[in-house]
Design a protein that fits this description.
With 309 residues, this protein is an alpha+beta fold. The protein is 45% helix and 11% strand.
Length: 309
Amino acid sequence: MPISKPHSSLGAKNIGSCSNLTLYLDKENQELDKMINKSNTISEIGFLENRKQLFFNNERLDVSCVEVIDSIDGNIKKLGKKDSKYFAPTISFSQLELEHLVSMATKGKKIKDVWEMNTNQFNFFNSLIREYSRLIMTNYAKNFNRQDKGLVTGDNLVYYGKIEHFRKFKGIDEEFKKGFVKSGSFKPGLNTHVHIIVSRKDKSQRLKLTPTSKERLTDRKIGTNSYRVGFDRMNWINMNEKTFDELFNYKRSLVEKFENQYILKNGSPKEKDDLLKQVKLQERLINKKVKIKNNGQNNSYNTSKGRGW
């Protein structure tokens, strides 16, 4: 399932400017610049230039770091010095989900990593990620349940997304601990994910939005002014999973569903046992259908061959 985590920040304090985080999220472009400086051919330079990713939001896909910083840092009306100014959600995909998106971009061709995509395939792959990310931010807005205050879609938010295609090994990874890799080296395979910087205030600067709140849905009242707080993180993940499946026509197995992954991790022994029985039953049914289909194809082939066509 696509895991969407509404982090308060990524190691930086979110009570001040988002400049450090924004510049940090430009790290892949900086890596590409190093490669470009070492390149000897125009074609290789062009290939690497086309791999660069700028920030995107609901309207644009070419937002610079400077624009991101100015926009987020300027959207802080009535926030105090110690108030959170922004949050940094991340969107991570499973290998099966990434393989599905790659298959859409390459028309079924299997690849080991994004370097094997040509420019058109790479651009289309990124467009799919952006389209999905924009819908996730609409789910983000909806999950605050403040539609009556004008918070309806991602258009009502001040946010910027950054697609990243690579991950690096860290000192906490098992591969590093066992001496198989060096810290800072690139992880193999498909590692595409998305970082988002979203303002604490909505675009109108009337609403304070806190996705890390422990409250799921609470109505409060001060005098004659009533308002709603809360953000259900699990509901957001479920919404995003449903959006992925519908948008990309993805046939998710039982064991891939977030609610079932949660049971396998946190459920009672009986809940886990019941779920595993359902998973095994589904697998048997799928294998049976595949077997029947293959037998039907074989019979059709043999029949036509026997007729001497």
